[in-house]
Amino acid sequence: MEREYEKEFAMTTGKNELEIIEIELLLEGVYRLYGYDFRNYALPSLKRRIWHHVHSENVPSISALQEKVLHDRACFERLIYSLSIPVTEMFRDPGLFLTFRQKVIPLLRTYPYIRIWHAGCSTGEEVYSMAILLHEEGLYDKARIYATDMNNRSLQQAKEGVYEISKMKQYTKNYLEAGGTRAFSEYYSAKYNSVILQPYLRKNIIFAEHNLATDTSFNEFNVIFCRNVMIYFNDELRDNVHGLFNESLSRFGVLVLGSKESIHFTKYSDSYEALDRVEKIYRKVN
Predict the structure, then answer these.
(1) Which pTM was predicted?
(2) Which domains does the chain have, with CATH numbers?
(3) pLDDT of residue 6 exceeding 60
């Protein structure tokens, strides 16, 4: 009985090792051929998404997926979308936006010009939420929002500003809880089963591809939003991205992280003070 258990354990261990080798080879191939670097993403989440894509591509193994990805650009683009599945909504976590109004907006009023970077902006809902908030606070005309993501398909949807009408009930609820001062319906026009956001909300937004794993700083910012992105990174990549943000923030610039993320336990923790520990809003002090 003990020998059978040992044999089964050895087989399971060998299977897991093979799976990890296949994943590493796939990610190395993607990086070397296409320049997209997922090699330092957290393995558990990455593994689930890769296997999901194996099944959706109807191939028998990760190795077979690698062969298809390396020889078929369309398959690669589908893989990129699978590995960066957008999960977002307008005024997601309303308490965060309410706190931003109360604690960060007064600071931004003192600046002659405001630069905000939404890193990993996905399909743009968070970006437009910020545009609405700045508009209501009378700051949008002196602001520039840089919205970046590595997923071109998500960026295209963000540029269009078109969303499902079925989501508007939840978005309206979020908006009101976030301190919204108007009727949320003023910010969009309905057409069939979709809504399109008002064009003036896009006028000060720049959408661009940017990969946090491989690309460098491109400007100095007063505010950086990066929420629920680094939870998919391993410690090495997370530290690298915090270094990128630290380099990109002006002195007294504000960093906003996701609910499960923190500046603590990074080598940059002493560079920040907490404006709100619950909502993960930090200000760079040195």
Answers:
(1) 0.85
(2) 2-83 (no CATH), 94-284 (3.40.50.150)
(3) no
